[in-house]
Amino acid sequence: MHDLHNELAQYTAGESCFKYEIGKVISQGARHFSFVKDNFDFTEDFNSLTTAVECLRTFLPLSFSTPASNSTDIIDDEIIEKLLGAQKQLRVLSLYGYNIFKLSCELSKLIHLRSLDFSFNPITTLPDSTGVLYNLEILLLSHCTKLIELPSSLGKLINLDYLDLNETKSLKWMPPEFSKLEKLQTLTTFVVSNNDKGSKITELGSLPLLVKLHIVECSKLEFLVNETAGYPNLELLEIISGCDSLTHFKLKSFNKLKYLFIKDCKNLENIEVPEDANWNLQFIEDLGIFDCPKLNLISEAGLPAPSLKSLVISNCNNLESIPNQMYRLTSLEELSIFCCSKLQSFPNGGLPPNLQSLLIEKCDLLTPQHAWGLNNMLSLTELRIIGGCKNLKLFPEEGLLPASLTSLQICEFPVLETLNLNGLLLNSSLEKMEINTCASLRSMSAGSLPSTLSSLKITGCSLMTERCQVGGEDWSKIRHIQNKVING
Question: How far apart are CA 128 and CA 112, in angstroms?
Answer without folding.
Answer: 17
